[in-house]
Design a protein that fits this description.
Two copies of one chain form a homodimer.
Chain A (H helix, E strand, L loop, with lengths): L5 E7 L3 H13 L2 E7 L3 H9 L5 E3 L2 H5 L4 E4 L6 H8 L8 E4 L5 H7 L9 E6 L20 E4 L7 H13 L3 E4 L2 H27 L6 H6 L6 H6 L4 H10 L1 H23 L3 H20 L20
Parallel strand pairs in A: 1-2, 1-4, 2-3, 4-5, 5-6, 7-8
Antiparallel strand pairs in A: 6-7
């Protein structure tokens, strides 16, 4: 049997992402020992009941002691705290990674506090669901998804390779880019979509002429597609927007300009402009399906009550 | 065996909706005979190959001759044409219905042209997928979905009951409201979501700093959820926006106001406002799931390549 990749792997923050890592590390025997830290005692005891780790602590420093890799899976606003807590116990060879959805801010927060910044390898798996907490995780979450690594100028290559090996072991494909470029790409592929989804669901909640029960009843007309993203973890997403402010506001500016142009076309009855816009968007879904990032079945392959398969 | 509900049921326009009706009418024996008209010869011969009907014609008037119910399933911009074509062959008892996503405009277009306006029962099933054409339909499309009937002041009650019976036979639950209220409700639950989805996919297609291949690769971060609606039929949706202009522009105005407030909160770092907004939107999805209009499985229950079930 192969030697595990790591002796002691420490996960700080045992939510959807942390618990999915723990499950897959266990299933694939990527580490001899899994140590789990979470400041929230309820999450920690849930993780223990699920048997996700071998060691549990409310203190990141305790869990990180003796680790050869520490993976921070906390909301991006808490990255600095994690670095501060683990710094005293890190060994020269301990790898430090994270899974935050914003990378430049995480680096700004963590790097200055770490004794061995060459061992910092920021990472971001592009995977998730709308559910939160230790029970929401599953071992195959990262299968066939991308994990983006954003090494700093100080990151050494061996550390980068080891973290890439971890993510390949978790089922992901690896992409490497700068933190700044990551934050631009994710602003458009993830942060803006979440903001728009939260916003439209909020708008629908506030109407006077249309009741909330009507919104719910007739949501199959399209609205329900937005509610999945709008059910995502509020703390995580608050932090994403606060920590990727400039890129999100830039993406939002373009979105609003384009929307104003569509509104103008509707007002003035410019059917050709609408038709042209609605036609080119079709190809993008096809490409996403071809790239293995979406399924081809209509309606996301939803199989709800009464929805048949013929 | 029960007597079928109708002797000759005519479907004008054999796309996703028309072909789903035809399949279910056949499966449930709701009519003795199904007549199908479509101006597009390719769609018509596809329908014939699929065996969806008993009679096929490129002319609505031919298919509607001798019908006891005619259901128009064309884009809402073509409703007036359909009324004009079928008017000469309608009998005093022939029911006329439709499935358009906008109701006041359909009534304005059809009612003045019909010889027996008391037989007009506008309808809108809140169901669909992103696929188009005769092959995209399936018999269970309307199962457990709502169908909204919007009788006019002239619609007689017996006609309303008969059309309600048809839709219950197709698997739908019935709701009745005015055309004007329907158009407000759908502007928020369907038309605005589609417009936003088309817009964000278009915005992502136009960036310079982020390549289209990056958008596709990393779409699992949230963007891909929007691409389903943005892959819907462009002709249908062009017509929806042109024919429900005022309600869509009103809904859009509220959406943009709310979005500006979120943007301001991001710019000024108002985390409490963001957290509060992102929390209340969670409950709405729960309610939609409880109402049987969405499934509870994470990620829409997508089962793509490599996505496991544990």
């Amino acid at each position: 049997m192969d030697e595990p990749l790591f002796r002691r792997l420490t996960i700080i923050g045992i939510g959807l992402i942390g618990s999915s890592i723990a499950r897959k590390v266990r299933a694939e025997r990527l580490a001899q020992e899994i140590a789990i830290a979470d400041r929230n005692p309820a999450a920690l005891s849930e993780a223990a009941e699920l048997g996700l780790g071998d060691f549990y602590s409310e203190h990141a420093s305790e869990a990180a002691t003796g680790a050869d890799i520490v993976v921070s899976c906390v909301p991006v606003g808490a990255a600095g705290n994690v670095a501060q807590e683990i710094a005293p116990v890190l060994l020269p060879d301990t790898l430090v990674s994270d899974t935050g959805s914003v990378k430049a801010s995480v680096i700004r927060q963590m790097q200055p506090l770490l004794p061995y910044p060459a061992r910092l390898v920021p990472a971001h798996p592009i995977a998730g669901t709308e559910n939160s907490g230790p029970s929401a995780g599953f071992a195959d979450l990262f299968e066939n998804r991308w994990c983006i690594l954003t090494p700093t100028r100080e990151t050494d290559l061996r550390a980068l390779d080891r973290v890439a090996e971890l993510w390949r072991g978790l089922g992901a494909d690896i992409e490497t880019m700068t933190a700044e470029h990551h934050d631009l790409v994710l602003a458009i592929t993830s942060h803006l979509p979440h903001l728009i989804a939260y916003n439209i669901v909020g708008t629908a909640d506030d109407l006077e002429e249309v009741t909330q029960s009507e919104v719910i009843k007739f949501s199959a007309g399209g609205f329900r597609d937005f509610t999945r993203l709008a059910a995502s973890d509020p703390t995580m997403w608050r932090d994403v927007f606060l920590h990727n402010r400039d890129a999100v506001i830039e993406a939002l500016g373009r979105f609003s300009e384009d929307l104003a142009a569509l509104q103008r076309a509707i007002r003035w009855g410019d059917g050709d402009m609408l038709y042209e816009t609605f036609t080119r968007t079709r190809a993008i879904r096809r490409n996403i399906i071809d790239a293995g990032q979406e399924i081809a079945a209509p309606d996301f392959g939803r199989r709800g009550p009464g929805s048949g398969s013929n």
